[in-house]
Amino acid sequence: MGNIKFTSKEEKEYTLISFEMDDVLIPEDLANLTPPEVSGSKGVVLSGRGPIWLFCFLTHFYHPTKFIATYDPRLGGAVIVERHTSGYEIGSVIKC
Question: pTM score > 0.70 for this model?
Answer without folding.
Answer: yes
